[in-house]
Write a structure and sequence with these properties.
By secondary structure, the protein is mostly beta strands. Helix content is 11%, strand content 43%. The strands form 4 sheets. Strands 9, 10, 11, 12, 13 and 14 form a 6-stranded antiparallel β-sheet that branches. Strands 5-2-7 form a 3-stranded antiparallel β-sheet, with no helix packed on it. It has a 3-stranded antiparallel β-sheet with strand order 4-3-6, with no helix packed on it.
């Protein structure tokens, strides 16, 4: 309902050395938007650390960022180091590394009811930021696959009656129902799904069978 702060996540090497944590790479799938909604994703051109630091301090950093108006079904890949912010009016399904390591770069100079600004992590954010122009991930011709990196792969399936998807018994799967309703079954287990439901499937040799009329997001490591 309101703009989130502009932030950046470190990669694994930096986070392990400085935070005793893993870094965070993530992706966003846009479920719905309100008119005028958008996201900040990386920089709109190559910039320098000094340029970004100066822009944060004088409140103009958003002028350097790549603002993208959003619509239902959009996909954004946010590798560690990408400066980003989710704008007001977006409903998003987010897939990410299991990490809470976040550096807040800018918060629009907002204050709480006591007049205090939120804590920023300027030095660390500037240390890990990727200052190159943002380039979207391209997966042309990959069927239902919408995102791929070394941490996870994400697919979106449109089910109209029935769909069988093979599995890899070395990996678990996580499924989110994005639209509609139906059922998901694997081996001897069957679960009903409606929009917003999430299901965790342990690693199995048995295929996943979707039935019904729905759109689902399926991800695995």
């Amino acid at each position: 309902k309101s703009d989130l702060s502009i932030q950046v996540h470190p990669d694994d090497d930096f986070a392990l050395e400085n935070e005793s944590s893993y870094g965070k790479t993530e992706m966003w799938y846009v479920l719905d938007t309100k008119p005028g909604a958008g996201l900040y994703v990386g920089f709109k051109r190559d910039v320098s650390r000094e340029e970004v630091e100066s822009a944060v301090k004088d409140g103009t950093v958003t002028e350097l960022l790549n603002f993208v108006p959003t619509k239902k079904g959009d996909v954004f890949f946010i590798p560690a180091g990408t400066v980003h912010a989710i704008g007001a009016g977006n409903l998003i399904c987010e897939v990410q590394q299991s990490s809470n390591c976040t550096y807040r770069l800018y918060d629009y100079d907002r204050v709480d009811r006591y007049g205090n600004k939120r804590e920023l992590h300027l030095e660390k954010a500037l240390e890990v930021a990727d200052y190159r122009k943002y380039e979207p991930q391209s997966l042309d011709g990959e069927g239902d696959l919408i995102c791929r990196c070394k941490y996870f792969e994400v697919l979106v399936h449109n089910i109209d009656c029935e769909l069988t998807v093979p599995t890899d018994d070395s990996k678990f799967d996580a499924v989110v129902c994005l639209e509609g309703e139906g059922q998901i079954s694997c081996a001897d287990s069957k679960v009903s799904l409606v929009r917003g439901d999430s299901v965790f499937l342990p690693a199995s040799k048995d295929p996943i069978v979707y039935t019904g009329h729905m759109k689902v997001l399926q991800c695995y490591v």
